[in-house]
Amino acid sequence: MDVMDSVAGNRQRVVGFADVVRIPLRRWRIVLAATGLMLLAVAGYLLLLPATYHATTVVVLRPVVTDPFTLPSSGADRAINMTAETGVALGNDVIDATSRALGRDADDVREALSVEVPTGGAVLRFGYADDAEDRAIAGANAAAKTYLHVREALYQKQREGLLLSYDSTLRQVTDQRKAAQKGIPDEEDGQEGTPARTQAMLDQVAALNDQIAQLANQRAKIASADLTPGAITGAARAPLPSSHDAWQLYVLGALLGGLLAGAVVAHAREALDGRVRSLEQAADLIGVPALGTVRAAGRHTADAAAADARYVSLALLKWIRLNPNRPLVMLSGRDDEGRTAVSVNVAVAIAEAGQDVWLVAAPELHETLRNVLFTAQKRTPPRARVLRAGEAQRHNGSPAPGVTLLPAVPGPPQADDPEATMVIEHETGQSVLAPPRIYTPAFGDAYGSDGRRPTVVAIGGGVVRLVALSDQPMAGVMVVDAPPSDVDERGVRAAQYGTAVLVVARDRTRNRDLTRLVDRLRSAGAQTAGFVLTGGKGA
Q1: Does the domain spanning 279-383+432-534 belong to CATH 2.30.29.30?
Q2: CATH code 1.20.1070 for 53-183+193-234
Q3: 404-374-480 Cα angle (round to 5)
Q4: Where do runs of H (alpha helix) occur along 366-463?
Q5: For the segment 455-502, what is each residue's pLDDT rounded down to a tens digit?
Q6: Calpha distance 239→171 (Å, rounded)
Protein backbone atom coordinates (compact mmCIF):
# COMPACT_ATOMS: atom_id res chain seq x y z
CA MET A 1 0.00 0.00 0.00
CA ASP A 2 1.33 3.44 -0.89
CA VAL A 3 2.06 5.87 1.87
CA MET A 4 -0.27 8.58 0.63
CA ASP A 5 -1.46 10.14 -2.56
CA SER A 6 -0.19 13.50 -3.71
CA VAL A 7 -3.43 15.28 -2.99
CA ALA A 8 -4.43 13.92 0.42
CA GLY A 9 -2.18 16.21 2.41
CA ASN A 10 -3.57 19.32 0.71
CA ARG A 11 -7.22 18.66 1.48
CA GLN A 12 -8.92 21.37 3.53
CA ARG A 13 -10.75 20.24 6.62
CA VAL A 14 -14.47 21.07 6.58
CA VAL A 15 -15.83 22.51 9.83
CA GLY A 16 -19.28 21.10 10.53
CA PHE A 17 -22.06 22.24 12.81
CA ALA A 18 -20.85 19.93 15.57
CA ASP A 19 -17.49 21.74 15.58
CA VAL A 20 -19.25 24.99 16.44
CA VAL A 21 -20.00 23.51 19.87
CA ARG A 22 -17.15 21.02 20.14
CA ILE A 23 -14.31 23.50 19.55
CA PRO A 24 -15.30 25.91 22.36
CA LEU A 25 -15.86 22.96 24.70
CA ARG A 26 -12.44 21.54 23.93
CA ARG A 27 -10.80 24.94 24.30
CA TRP A 28 -12.80 25.81 27.39
CA ARG A 29 -9.81 27.56 28.95
CA ILE A 30 -9.88 30.23 26.22
CA VAL A 31 -13.63 30.68 26.62
CA LEU A 32 -13.28 30.86 30.40
CA ALA A 33 -10.46 33.40 30.15
CA ALA A 34 -12.43 35.63 27.77
CA THR A 35 -15.51 35.45 29.98
CA GLY A 36 -13.43 36.20 33.07
CA LEU A 37 -11.84 39.23 31.44
CA MET A 38 -15.23 40.55 30.36
CA LEU A 39 -16.68 40.07 33.84
CA LEU A 40 -13.60 41.67 35.38
CA ALA A 41 -14.00 44.72 33.13
CA VAL A 42 -17.67 45.07 34.07
CA ALA A 43 -16.86 44.64 37.76
CA GLY A 44 -14.22 47.35 37.49
CA TYR A 45 -16.73 49.62 35.79
CA LEU A 46 -19.35 49.04 38.47
CA LEU A 47 -17.02 49.21 41.47
CA LEU A 48 -14.31 51.67 40.51
CA LEU A 49 -16.15 54.18 38.32
CA PRO A 50 -18.80 56.36 40.03
CA ALA A 51 -22.40 56.08 38.93
CA THR A 52 -23.58 58.63 36.38
CA TYR A 53 -27.03 60.17 36.95
CA HIS A 54 -29.07 61.32 33.97
CA ALA A 55 -31.60 64.12 34.53
CA THR A 56 -34.11 65.16 31.84
CA THR A 57 -36.17 68.34 31.66
CA VAL A 58 -38.95 68.61 29.07
CA VAL A 59 -39.71 71.95 27.40
CA VAL A 60 -42.78 72.37 25.19
CA LEU A 61 -42.32 75.09 22.58
CA ARG A 62 -45.04 77.39 21.27
CA PRO A 63 -45.06 79.65 18.24
CA VAL A 64 -44.94 83.37 19.02
CA VAL A 65 -48.08 84.91 17.42
CA THR A 66 -49.91 88.20 17.84
CA ASP A 67 -53.15 86.38 18.61
CA PRO A 68 -52.48 83.50 21.02
CA PHE A 69 -55.85 81.94 20.18
CA THR A 70 -55.22 81.80 16.45
CA LEU A 71 -52.61 79.45 14.93
CA PRO A 72 -50.88 80.01 11.63
CA SER A 73 -52.45 78.39 8.63
CA SER A 74 -49.52 75.93 8.38
CA GLY A 75 -50.07 74.59 11.90
CA ALA A 76 -48.13 74.87 15.14
CA ASP A 77 -45.85 71.94 14.35
CA ARG A 78 -44.60 73.73 11.23
CA ALA A 79 -44.49 77.22 12.69
CA ILE A 80 -41.34 76.35 14.69
CA ASN A 81 -38.04 75.33 13.11
CA MET A 82 -36.87 72.61 15.50
CA THR A 83 -33.44 72.45 13.92
CA ALA A 84 -32.91 76.10 14.67
CA GLU A 85 -34.25 75.68 18.20
CA THR A 86 -31.80 72.82 18.82
CA GLY A 87 -28.97 75.04 17.64
CA VAL A 88 -30.06 77.75 20.05
CA ALA A 89 -30.38 75.25 22.92
CA LEU A 90 -26.78 74.09 22.39
CA GLY A 91 -25.42 77.50 21.50
CA ASN A 92 -22.77 79.43 23.33
CA ASP A 93 -25.29 81.76 24.99
CA VAL A 94 -27.12 78.87 26.69
CA ILE A 95 -23.89 77.03 27.56
CA ASP A 96 -22.24 80.11 29.05
CA ALA A 97 -25.31 81.12 31.06
CA THR A 98 -25.77 77.55 32.36
CA SER A 99 -22.09 77.28 33.34
CA ARG A 100 -22.39 80.56 35.29
CA ALA A 101 -25.54 79.32 37.02
CA LEU A 102 -23.92 76.01 38.00
CA GLY A 103 -20.46 77.39 38.71
CA ARG A 104 -18.82 74.89 36.35
CA ASP A 105 -16.55 75.16 33.35
CA ALA A 106 -18.28 75.74 30.02
CA ASP A 107 -16.54 72.76 28.39
CA ASP A 108 -17.77 70.45 31.16
CA VAL A 109 -21.32 71.74 30.72
CA ARG A 110 -21.12 71.29 26.95
CA GLU A 111 -19.99 67.67 27.40
CA ALA A 112 -22.66 66.88 29.99
CA LEU A 113 -25.57 68.61 28.22
CA SER A 114 -27.58 66.96 25.46
CA VAL A 115 -30.78 67.97 23.64
CA GLU A 116 -33.20 65.53 22.05
CA VAL A 117 -35.99 66.41 19.63
CA PRO A 118 -38.81 63.89 19.19
CA THR A 119 -39.87 63.43 15.60
CA GLY A 120 -42.92 65.46 14.62
CA GLY A 121 -43.27 67.34 17.91
CA ALA A 122 -42.43 70.80 19.23
CA VAL A 123 -40.66 69.40 22.31
CA LEU A 124 -37.09 69.70 23.55
CA ARG A 125 -35.64 67.26 26.09
CA PHE A 126 -32.67 68.69 27.96
CA GLY A 127 -30.48 65.89 29.36
CA TYR A 128 -27.71 66.46 31.84
CA ALA A 129 -25.30 63.81 33.17
CA ASP A 130 -23.35 64.14 36.39
CA ASP A 131 -21.81 61.99 39.10
CA ALA A 132 -24.09 63.59 41.74
CA GLU A 133 -27.85 63.36 41.57
CA ASP A 134 -28.53 66.93 42.79
CA ARG A 135 -26.05 68.42 40.33
CA ALA A 136 -27.64 66.51 37.46
CA ILE A 137 -31.09 67.83 38.40
CA ALA A 138 -29.81 71.39 38.73
CA GLY A 139 -27.99 71.17 35.42
CA ALA A 140 -30.99 69.97 33.41
CA ASN A 141 -33.39 72.53 34.92
CA ALA A 142 -30.87 75.37 34.59
CA ALA A 143 -30.23 74.55 30.93
CA ALA A 144 -33.97 74.52 30.17
CA LYS A 145 -34.59 77.83 31.96
CA THR A 146 -31.58 79.42 30.34
CA TYR A 147 -32.78 78.36 26.91
CA LEU A 148 -36.19 79.94 27.51
CA HIS A 149 -34.61 83.19 28.69
CA VAL A 150 -32.19 83.32 25.75
CA ARG A 151 -34.97 82.55 23.27
CA GLU A 152 -37.26 85.18 24.79
CA ALA A 153 -34.47 87.75 24.63
CA LEU A 154 -34.03 87.00 20.96
CA TYR A 155 -37.75 87.49 20.36
CA GLN A 156 -37.65 90.78 22.27
CA LYS A 157 -34.83 92.05 20.08
CA GLN A 158 -36.82 91.06 17.00
CA ARG A 159 -39.93 92.85 18.38
CA GLU A 160 -37.98 95.99 19.22
CA GLY A 161 -36.62 96.13 15.70
CA LEU A 162 -40.08 95.59 14.27
CA LEU A 163 -41.62 98.30 16.50
CA LEU A 164 -38.93 100.73 15.43
CA SER A 165 -39.79 99.97 11.83
CA TYR A 166 -43.49 100.64 12.48
CA ASP A 167 -42.69 103.90 14.30
CA SER A 168 -40.58 105.09 11.39
CA THR A 169 -43.34 104.26 8.92
CA LEU A 170 -45.94 105.98 11.05
CA ARG A 171 -43.84 109.14 11.18
CA GLN A 172 -43.46 109.13 7.42
CA VAL A 173 -47.20 108.63 6.84
CA THR A 174 -48.05 111.31 9.40
CA ASP A 175 -45.75 113.78 7.66
CA GLN A 176 -47.41 112.93 4.36
CA ARG A 177 -50.83 113.54 5.88
CA LYS A 178 -49.73 116.90 7.28
CA ALA A 179 -48.41 117.96 3.89
CA ALA A 180 -51.65 116.86 2.22
CA GLN A 181 -53.72 118.78 4.74
CA LYS A 182 -51.78 121.99 4.07
CA GLY A 183 -52.70 121.81 0.41
CA ILE A 184 -56.45 121.83 1.03
CA PRO A 185 -57.88 125.36 0.26
CA ASP A 186 -60.20 127.13 2.68
CA GLU A 187 -63.97 126.98 1.99
CA GLU A 188 -65.35 130.00 0.12
CA ASP A 189 -68.69 131.55 1.16
CA GLY A 190 -71.50 131.18 -1.31
CA GLN A 191 -69.64 128.67 -3.44
CA GLU A 192 -71.69 125.65 -4.32
CA GLY A 193 -69.93 122.20 -4.35
CA THR A 194 -66.26 121.30 -3.94
CA PRO A 195 -63.71 121.70 -6.65
CA ALA A 196 -62.26 118.49 -8.02
CA ARG A 197 -58.73 119.34 -6.88
CA THR A 198 -59.87 119.87 -3.32
CA GLN A 199 -61.84 116.62 -3.35
CA ALA A 200 -58.78 114.69 -4.48
CA MET A 201 -56.65 116.06 -1.69
CA LEU A 202 -59.34 115.20 0.85
CA ASP A 203 -59.42 111.64 -0.45
CA GLN A 204 -55.62 111.45 -0.09
CA VAL A 205 -55.79 112.66 3.50
CA ALA A 206 -58.49 110.09 4.30
CA ALA A 207 -56.37 107.29 2.81
CA LEU A 208 -53.36 108.38 4.85
CA ASN A 209 -55.51 108.40 7.97
CA ASP A 210 -56.62 104.83 7.24
CA GLN A 211 -52.99 103.75 6.70
CA ILE A 212 -51.96 105.38 9.96
CA ALA A 213 -54.79 103.56 11.75
CA GLN A 214 -53.76 100.19 10.27
CA LEU A 215 -50.09 100.70 11.16
CA ALA A 216 -51.01 101.71 14.65
CA ASN A 217 -53.22 98.65 15.01
CA GLN A 218 -50.43 96.33 13.80
CA ARG A 219 -47.94 98.00 16.09
CA ALA A 220 -50.26 97.56 19.03
CA LYS A 221 -50.66 93.84 18.26
CA ILE A 222 -46.88 93.33 18.01
CA ALA A 223 -46.28 95.30 21.19
CA SER A 224 -48.87 93.22 23.07
CA ALA A 225 -47.68 89.81 21.72
CA ASP A 226 -46.58 87.16 24.22
CA LEU A 227 -42.91 86.47 23.52
CA THR A 228 -42.67 83.40 25.78
CA PRO A 229 -41.10 80.68 23.55
CA GLY A 230 -42.45 77.82 25.62
CA ALA A 231 -42.77 76.36 29.08
CA ILE A 232 -41.16 73.67 31.22
CA THR A 233 -43.68 70.87 31.50
CA GLY A 234 -41.46 68.21 33.05
CA ALA A 235 -38.79 69.51 35.37
CA ALA A 236 -36.10 67.07 36.46
CA ARG A 237 -36.50 65.77 40.01
CA ALA A 238 -35.32 62.91 42.20
CA PRO A 239 -35.03 59.99 42.05
CA LEU A 240 -32.95 59.75 38.88
CA PRO A 241 -31.80 56.71 36.95
CA SER A 242 -28.08 56.01 37.08
CA SER A 243 -25.65 53.95 35.06
CA HIS A 244 -25.38 51.38 37.87
CA ASP A 245 -29.10 50.73 38.27
CA ALA A 246 -29.19 47.80 35.81
CA TRP A 247 -26.00 46.11 37.04
CA GLN A 248 -27.59 42.69 36.61
CA LEU A 249 -27.96 43.36 32.89
CA TYR A 250 -24.35 44.48 32.73
CA VAL A 251 -23.21 41.25 34.36
CA LEU A 252 -25.44 39.15 32.11
CA GLY A 253 -24.22 41.03 29.05
CA ALA A 254 -20.62 40.54 30.12
CA LEU A 255 -21.23 36.83 30.61
CA LEU A 256 -22.87 36.35 27.22
CA GLY A 257 -20.39 38.64 25.50
CA GLY A 258 -17.48 36.82 27.10
CA LEU A 259 -18.82 33.46 25.98
CA LEU A 260 -19.30 34.75 22.45
CA ALA A 261 -15.87 36.39 22.34
CA GLY A 262 -14.29 33.24 23.80
CA ALA A 263 -15.99 31.08 21.19
CA VAL A 264 -14.73 33.34 18.42
CA VAL A 265 -11.18 33.29 19.81
CA ALA A 266 -11.40 29.49 20.23
CA HIS A 267 -12.39 29.06 16.59
CA ALA A 268 -9.63 31.43 15.51
CA ARG A 269 -7.11 29.50 17.60
CA GLU A 270 -8.43 26.26 16.11
CA ALA A 271 -7.99 27.59 12.58
CA LEU A 272 -4.42 28.67 13.27
CA ASP A 273 -3.45 25.61 15.33
CA GLY A 274 -3.98 22.93 12.66
CA ARG A 275 -4.10 19.75 14.78
CA VAL A 276 -5.60 16.38 13.99
CA ARG A 277 -9.13 16.29 15.39
CA SER A 278 -10.68 13.14 14.00
CA LEU A 279 -9.99 9.76 12.46
CA GLU A 280 -11.25 10.92 9.08
CA GLN A 281 -8.96 13.95 9.08
CA ALA A 282 -5.92 11.80 9.85
CA ALA A 283 -6.89 9.36 7.09
CA ASP A 284 -7.08 12.25 4.61
CA LEU A 285 -3.65 13.50 5.61
CA ILE A 286 -1.92 10.11 5.63
CA GLY A 287 -3.74 8.39 2.78
CA VAL A 288 -3.78 4.93 4.44
CA PRO A 289 -6.58 3.18 6.37
CA ALA A 290 -6.94 3.42 10.12
CA LEU A 291 -6.06 0.35 12.16
CA GLY A 292 -8.08 1.52 15.15
CA THR A 293 -8.30 3.97 17.99
CA VAL A 294 -6.47 3.44 21.27
CA ARG A 295 -7.81 5.38 24.20
CA ALA A 296 -5.51 7.17 26.61
CA ALA A 297 -3.79 4.73 28.96
CA GLY A 298 -4.50 6.57 32.19
CA ARG A 299 -4.93 5.28 35.71
CA HIS A 300 -8.57 4.34 35.15
CA THR A 301 -8.41 3.51 31.44
CA ALA A 302 -5.52 1.01 31.27
CA ASP A 303 -7.87 -1.91 30.57
CA ALA A 304 -9.68 0.09 27.90
CA ALA A 305 -6.39 0.95 26.20
CA ALA A 306 -5.34 -2.70 26.28
CA ALA A 307 -8.68 -3.75 24.78
CA ASP A 308 -8.28 -1.21 21.99
CA ALA A 309 -4.76 -2.49 21.32
CA ARG A 310 -6.09 -6.04 20.95
CA TYR A 311 -8.31 -4.91 18.09
CA VAL A 312 -5.35 -3.14 16.51
CA SER A 313 -3.32 -6.35 16.81
CA LEU A 314 -6.06 -8.25 14.96
CA ALA A 315 -5.49 -5.93 12.01
CA LEU A 316 -1.72 -6.52 12.21
CA LEU A 317 -1.68 -10.31 12.71
CA LYS A 318 -2.59 -10.91 9.07
CA TRP A 319 0.32 -8.77 7.95
CA ILE A 320 2.61 -10.60 10.41
CA ARG A 321 1.66 -13.96 8.95
CA LEU A 322 2.27 -12.76 5.40
CA ASN A 323 5.53 -10.99 6.27
CA PRO A 324 7.41 -13.04 8.88
CA ASN A 325 10.64 -11.71 10.39
CA ARG A 326 9.87 -8.12 9.35
CA PRO A 327 9.52 -5.54 12.12
CA LEU A 328 6.47 -3.47 12.90
CA VAL A 329 7.83 0.03 13.49
CA MET A 330 5.67 2.33 15.58
CA LEU A 331 6.41 5.85 14.36
CA SER A 332 5.40 9.31 15.55
CA GLY A 333 6.78 12.78 15.14
CA ARG A 334 7.19 13.47 18.85
CA ASP A 335 7.37 11.60 22.12
CA ASP A 336 4.10 12.92 23.58
CA GLU A 337 1.74 11.28 21.10
CA GLY A 338 1.19 7.96 22.90
CA ARG A 339 3.52 5.92 20.71
CA THR A 340 5.15 3.95 23.57
CA ALA A 341 1.81 3.02 25.11
CA VAL A 342 0.56 1.78 21.75
CA SER A 343 3.77 -0.22 21.13
CA VAL A 344 3.69 -2.09 24.43
CA ASN A 345 -0.06 -2.70 24.28
CA VAL A 346 0.17 -4.05 20.74
CA ALA A 347 3.06 -6.32 21.77
CA VAL A 348 1.02 -7.56 24.73
CA ALA A 349 -2.03 -8.18 22.53
CA ILE A 350 0.06 -10.17 20.01
CA ALA A 351 1.55 -12.21 22.86
CA GLU A 352 -1.93 -12.91 24.24
CA ALA A 353 -2.78 -14.30 20.81
CA GLY A 354 0.00 -16.90 21.26
CA GLN A 355 2.94 -15.20 19.50
CA ASP A 356 6.48 -14.68 20.74
CA VAL A 357 7.15 -10.95 20.39
CA TRP A 358 10.29 -8.90 20.55
CA LEU A 359 9.56 -5.46 21.98
CA VAL A 360 12.38 -3.12 20.92
CA ALA A 361 12.59 0.19 22.74
CA ALA A 362 15.04 2.76 24.04
CA PRO A 363 16.73 1.70 27.33
CA GLU A 364 15.38 4.70 29.23
CA LEU A 365 11.85 3.42 28.59
CA HIS A 366 12.43 -0.13 29.82
CA GLU A 367 11.40 0.51 33.40
CA THR A 368 8.07 1.95 32.29
CA LEU A 369 7.55 -0.86 29.81
CA ARG A 370 8.31 -3.51 32.45
CA ASN A 371 5.60 -2.08 34.67
CA VAL A 372 3.11 -2.29 31.82
CA LEU A 373 4.18 -5.86 31.02
CA PHE A 374 3.87 -6.90 34.67
CA THR A 375 0.38 -5.40 34.80
CA ALA A 376 -0.54 -7.25 31.60
CA GLN A 377 0.77 -10.52 33.07
CA LYS A 378 -1.46 -10.03 36.11
CA ARG A 379 -4.41 -9.35 33.86
CA THR A 380 -3.65 -12.32 31.55
CA PRO A 381 -1.65 -14.97 33.45
CA PRO A 382 0.62 -17.30 31.46
CA ARG A 383 -0.95 -20.55 30.38
CA ALA A 384 0.49 -23.83 29.09
CA ARG A 385 1.60 -23.62 25.52
CA VAL A 386 2.46 -26.58 23.32
CA LEU A 387 5.02 -26.01 20.56
CA ARG A 388 5.28 -28.03 17.40
CA ALA A 389 7.32 -31.22 17.49
CA GLY A 390 11.03 -30.71 16.92
CA GLU A 391 10.86 -27.01 17.88
CA ALA A 392 12.61 -27.77 21.21
CA GLN A 393 15.93 -27.89 19.37
CA ARG A 394 15.69 -24.16 18.82
CA HIS A 395 15.81 -23.75 22.58
CA ASN A 396 19.34 -25.22 22.78
CA GLY A 397 17.97 -28.64 23.85
CA SER A 398 17.51 -27.62 27.49
CA PRO A 399 14.38 -26.22 29.07
CA ALA A 400 14.41 -22.65 30.30
CA PRO A 401 13.09 -21.76 33.75
CA GLY A 402 9.37 -22.26 33.79
CA VAL A 403 9.51 -24.56 30.72
CA THR A 404 8.84 -28.30 30.92
CA LEU A 405 9.65 -30.76 28.13
CA LEU A 406 6.92 -33.33 27.62
CA PRO A 407 7.35 -36.37 25.35
CA ALA A 408 5.31 -36.75 22.25
CA VAL A 409 4.11 -40.17 23.57
CA PRO A 410 3.25 -41.18 27.12
CA GLY A 411 6.30 -41.84 29.24
CA PRO A 412 8.96 -39.99 31.17
CA PRO A 413 10.14 -36.79 29.45
CA GLN A 414 13.46 -36.85 27.64
CA ALA A 415 15.27 -33.56 27.35
CA ASP A 416 17.30 -34.76 24.35
CA ASP A 417 14.35 -36.15 22.38
CA PRO A 418 14.10 -34.09 19.18
CA GLU A 419 10.43 -35.03 18.96
CA ALA A 420 9.73 -33.74 22.45
CA THR A 421 7.21 -30.94 22.87
CA MET A 422 7.93 -27.75 24.82
CA VAL A 423 5.24 -26.56 27.17
CA ILE A 424 5.48 -23.26 29.07
CA GLU A 425 3.57 -23.69 32.30
CA HIS A 426 3.53 -22.39 35.83
CA GLU A 427 5.69 -24.10 38.40
CA THR A 428 3.79 -25.71 41.20
CA GLY A 429 3.06 -23.28 44.00
CA GLN A 430 4.27 -20.22 42.08
CA SER A 431 1.89 -17.25 42.08
CA VAL A 432 0.82 -15.94 38.72
CA LEU A 433 1.48 -12.45 40.09
CA ALA A 434 5.19 -13.14 40.58
CA PRO A 435 7.68 -11.14 38.50
CA PRO A 436 8.44 -12.59 35.07
CA ARG A 437 11.34 -14.92 34.55
CA ILE A 438 14.55 -13.94 32.74
CA TYR A 439 15.89 -16.55 30.36
CA THR A 440 17.84 -16.93 27.18
CA PRO A 441 15.93 -15.85 24.04
CA ALA A 442 14.97 -18.48 21.54
CA PHE A 443 17.03 -17.07 18.71
CA GLY A 444 19.54 -14.40 17.92
CA ASP A 445 22.06 -13.07 20.36
CA ALA A 446 21.32 -14.48 23.81
CA TYR A 447 22.66 -11.37 25.54
CA GLY A 448 22.39 -7.66 24.95
CA SER A 449 25.25 -5.41 23.94
CA ASP A 450 25.72 -4.44 27.60
CA GLY A 451 26.01 -8.09 28.69
CA ARG A 452 22.56 -8.32 30.22
CA ARG A 453 19.90 -10.79 29.28
CA PRO A 454 16.64 -9.37 27.85
CA THR A 455 13.55 -9.20 30.02
CA VAL A 456 11.09 -11.92 29.10
CA VAL A 457 7.46 -11.81 30.27
CA ALA A 458 5.08 -14.68 29.63
CA ILE A 459 1.59 -13.33 28.92
CA GLY A 460 -1.24 -15.65 28.02
CA GLY A 461 -0.04 -18.08 25.40
CA GLY A 462 2.89 -15.98 24.24
CA VAL A 463 6.04 -14.25 25.43
CA VAL A 464 7.21 -10.64 25.20
CA ARG A 465 10.98 -10.10 25.12
CA LEU A 466 12.09 -6.56 25.89
CA VAL A 467 15.40 -5.50 24.29
CA ALA A 468 17.16 -2.24 23.47
CA LEU A 469 17.24 -0.61 20.07
CA SER A 470 20.89 -1.58 19.60
CA ASP A 471 20.04 -5.26 20.24
CA GLN A 472 17.22 -5.57 17.73
CA PRO A 473 16.96 -9.20 16.57
CA MET A 474 17.13 -10.22 12.95
CA ALA A 475 14.12 -12.57 12.92
CA GLY A 476 10.80 -13.16 14.64
CA VAL A 477 7.81 -10.98 15.38
CA MET A 478 9.19 -7.55 16.28
CA VAL A 479 7.41 -4.44 17.54
CA VAL A 480 9.79 -1.49 17.45
CA ASP A 481 9.03 1.56 19.56
CA ALA A 482 11.01 3.90 17.32
CA PRO A 483 12.41 7.20 18.58
CA PRO A 484 10.53 10.35 17.53
CA SER A 485 11.17 11.01 13.86
CA ASP A 486 11.72 14.73 14.41
CA VAL A 487 15.00 14.04 16.24
CA ASP A 488 16.00 10.51 15.17
CA GLU A 489 15.92 8.85 11.77
CA ARG A 490 16.37 5.24 12.99
CA GLY A 491 12.62 4.64 12.96
CA VAL A 492 12.30 5.55 9.29
CA ARG A 493 15.38 3.45 8.53
CA ALA A 494 13.86 0.43 10.32
CA ALA A 495 10.60 0.93 8.42
CA GLN A 496 12.50 0.41 5.15
CA TYR A 497 12.99 -3.27 6.14
CA GLY A 498 9.57 -3.75 7.69
CA THR A 499 6.44 -1.68 7.79
CA ALA A 500 5.53 1.48 9.59
CA VAL A 501 2.50 2.00 11.82
CA LEU A 502 1.95 5.70 12.36
CA VAL A 503 0.75 6.83 15.77
CA VAL A 504 -1.37 9.98 15.66
CA ALA A 505 -2.59 11.72 18.81
CA ARG A 506 -5.96 13.38 18.65
CA ASP A 507 -5.83 17.10 19.55
CA ARG A 508 -2.04 16.95 19.82
CA THR A 509 -0.44 15.92 16.52
CA ARG A 510 -0.11 18.90 14.19
CA ASN A 511 -1.10 18.52 10.58
CA ARG A 512 2.20 19.85 9.27
CA ASP A 513 4.21 17.44 11.47
CA LEU A 514 2.16 14.47 10.31
CA THR A 515 2.48 15.47 6.68
CA ARG A 516 6.24 15.88 7.09
CA LEU A 517 6.53 12.38 8.62
CA VAL A 518 4.52 10.86 5.77
CA ASP A 519 6.71 12.64 3.22
CA ARG A 520 9.83 11.25 4.89
CA LEU A 521 8.45 7.72 4.74
CA ARG A 522 7.49 8.14 1.11
CA SER A 523 10.91 9.55 0.22
CA ALA A 524 12.61 6.63 1.98
CA GLY A 525 10.44 4.11 0.14
CA ALA A 526 9.04 2.69 3.38
CA GLN A 527 5.77 0.80 3.47
CA THR A 528 2.96 1.90 5.80
CA ALA A 529 0.46 -0.62 7.13
CA GLY A 530 -1.86 2.02 8.56
CA PHE A 531 -2.16 4.38 11.48
CA VAL A 532 -3.45 4.29 15.03
CA LEU A 533 -5.29 7.23 16.58
CA THR A 534 -4.54 7.68 20.26
CA GLY A 535 -6.71 9.37 22.82
CA GLY A 536 -5.02 12.77 22.62
CA LYS A 537 -3.48 14.68 25.47
CA GLY A 538 -4.04 11.99 27.99
CA ALA A 539 -2.20 9.44 25.93
Answers
A1: no
A2: no
A3: 95
A4: 366-379
A5: 888 988 889 999 988 877 877 888 999 888 888 888 888 888 888 999
A6: 59
